[in-house]
Amino acid sequence: MTSFVTEVLASSGKLEKDDLASKISKLSRKVEETKEEVFDMLNKKYSDFLPSMQAAEELMDQVETVSKDIDLLKSCIENEFDTAIGEYQKALQEQKYVVAAEQYIKARNSVDALKAWRSADIPLFQALGSELTIQRENLTYHLGEEWQNQAVWKLPPSKELTSMESFLTTELHLNTGASPEREEGTHPLLASVLQALAIQGELHKKIKLFGQVLLRYMLRPLIVYPCVLVEVRDVPEQGSVISLQYKESQTEHSAPAQVYAKVLTVLKALHTHLFDVSVGEKKVSAILGDLIWEEMCDCIIQECLLYSIPSSSSQLPEYGTVIKETEDFERSLREMCYLSGDSDLLKYAKNVSCHFANKKCQDVIVAARKLMTSEMHNTVKITPDYKLSMPKLPILGGGDGKRGSQSEKPSLQQEKQLGERTLCLPACRISESVQQLMELALRTLSEAVGSSNKCAVQLFYTVRNIFHLFYDVVPTYHRENLLRFPHLAAIQHNNCMFLAHHLLTLGHQFRPHLPLTDGVCYFVDLVPGFRKLGAQCFVAQMNVQKAEMLERLSTARNFSNLDDEENYSAASKAVRQVIHQLKRLGKVWQDVLPVNIYCKAMGTLLNTAITELITKIMMLEDISSKDGEHLHTLCQTIIEEGPLVFTPFPEESKNRKYQEEVPVYVKKWMTFKELSIALKASLQEIVDRWAEGKGPLALEFSSTEMKSLIRALFQNTDRRAVALTKIK
Prior knowledge:
By secondary structure, the protein is mainly alpha-helical. It contains 27 helices and 8 strands. The chain has 4 domains: 34-148; 155-177 and 186-342; 374-388 and 425-533, no CATH class; 539-726, Tetracycline Repressor, domain 2 (Orthogonal Bundle), CATH 1.10.357.150. 65% of the residues lie in helices and 5% in strands. Pfam families: ZW10_C, ZW10_C2, Zw10_middle, Zw10_N. Residues 423-551 form the Centromere/kinetochore protein zw10 C-terminal domain.
C-alpha cells in the first residue's frame, strides 16, 4: 500500500508509476555507482588526474548531502506528516473537530520544521503546502456548516429596515437539539465546533459577524422601541427560537428596567444554548461581550438612560432605583462572562447629577431658542403693577456670618419715601414669548437653588447664556420683519427694555442662594447691551419711516410755482401722504409703546416732515401771492392734522392732553406755525411780529432768514426796503 505522501506527489505530477520507495532505491544505487567511479579515478596517476580529483571530492560532498536529505525526508514523511494527516481525516469523519484541528496543526508544524531546516525550494514542499491549504479549507468549511446549523438567522430584507414593524420578522433558531451526553449547558458537538474554530483562528471572525447581526436586528430594536418585546420558545428535540414580538406601548422611550430585562432574556438564551463554552482560558460569551458591549452600552445610554434622567432636581433622589437596576444588570452579565472590568453604563447612571445638569441646560437652551424664533406679534399687556411670578426661595438664617439674614429689615430714617411705582416698568406691550422666556430663566434659577454646587453653577451660567443667545438670535432671525413692520420693531424695543428692567434685580434676588464666588457678575452687566439693542432696533425703524416721508416729500417739486395746477396737486398729494403715514404709524404703535416713547417717536417723525417743508420754502427765491396762499394752505393742513397723529391710547379722551402738547415733542412746531403766518401776512404784519427782534417771529428765525423770506414774498419797493431795515 502506497503512503499518503506518495499519493500527493502522484496527484501533483511528480511521480507517475514508481512509488517513493522505488525512487529512493534508485537514488541509492546511483550513489553506489558514483562511489565506484570515484575509486576508479583515484587509481589513476595523480599527475594525470589532478583536476579530476578535485571534482571528485566536490561530487562526494554533494552525494553525502543528498543522502542525508533523502534519509531525513523519508523519516519525516513516513512518520509525522503521514500520521497527522491520517488522524486528521479520521477525526473529521467522526465529527471530532477539536482532534481534527489539532492533527492539522501537527501536520503543518512538521512541514514548517522541514522548511526551516532545508531552505532550498524542493518540489515536494510545494506539493505538501498545497495539500495543507486544501485540508484547511475543508476543515473550515465543515466547521462553518456546523456553526450555521447551530445558529440560524431569519432576517428581514435590508431594504425594508425603515420602521419598527420590519424588525418583527427577526428570528434566531438555536438548533442545539438533545444529546445523551448533555446533562446541562451547551451541546458537546457545538462545544467541539467552537473550540476547533478557536484552534483554527476563525472563532473571533465568526463571533464578530454573529454579534453584528445580533446588535442590528435584535438587541438594538429591543432597546430603541418600547413596543418590541422578546420571546424565547423551546422546540422539543431541536432547541429554542428567539423572536421579536409587538406589544402596544404609550411611552416614547423604554424604561431602563424594561430594557435590561429584554436584553438579559436574549443573552441568557444565547449563553445557555451557544456560548457557555471555554476556549483556552476564556469563555466564548466573553469573546462576544468584548465585541458587542461598547456599542450596546452606547445604545442603552443614548436611547434609554438619557431619557430617564430626571427633569427636575426634586426627582434626583428617586433615581437611585435606576442605579440599583443597572448594578443588577451588570452583575448578571458578569455571571455569564459577557462583561468584565469597569463599565461606562454604571458610571453614566451614577453620574446622574452631572447628566441632569447637562440635560437641563440643553433643554433650557432648546426651549429658549424655540421661544426666540417664535412669532413676535402675540403680545401681552404690561402695566406698572406687573410682577413676575417669583419662585419661593428658602429663608436663609443669619448664623453663617456670610449672607446675613433676610428677616432683618433695615429701618428708613427719612420721613419721605419713594412712591410705590418708582422704577416700575411703564405700561406697554411685549411679546408673549419674551414673558415666557423670563419665566423660563426664573424656573431654571430656582432649580439651581435646590441642586448641588456644581449643578447650580452650570444652571446659573445657562441662564446667562439664554440672554446672550437672545442678543444674537432675535435681531438676526427677525431682521427683515423688524425693518419691514413698525409694529414688530416697537415690540422688540419693549422686549429689550423689559428684559433689561428685570436683569437689574434678578441677580440680587438669587445671589444669597447660589454658590458663586465673590466678584461674579450676575446679570446687571447685560443691562446696557439690552437697552442698546432695543434702541438700535427702534431707531432703525425710525430711519426707515423718515426715509419714506422724505421720499414722498421729494415728489412735491420743491413746492415751487404752485400757481401751476400740476405742481400744486403734486405738493398737496405729498403732504397728504405724509399725514396719512403718520396717522397709520400712530395707530400701529397705539397701546404698544410706552406713552413717553410713543410721543417722542411721533414728534420726531412729524418734526422731520415740517423741517423738510420749512427748508424747501425758505430756499424759494420768488413766491408769488398765489404761491404764498397755496403754501399757507399746505402748512395749515399740517398744523390742523399734525396734532391728530398723537393717539397713544384707544380712548380719544385720553389723547387730547398729548395733542395739546405737540410743541413739547415737535421741536420745529412753533417755527412752522410762524412760517405759515408769514406766508399770508402783509409786510407790516411781518415787521410787527418781528418786533425789533423781540417778537415771536424773531424767536424762530434769524434776521438773515427773515430778510430772504421777505425778498421772496414781496416785490422790490421802497416799503420793502424800509421793512428790511427793521429786520435786524
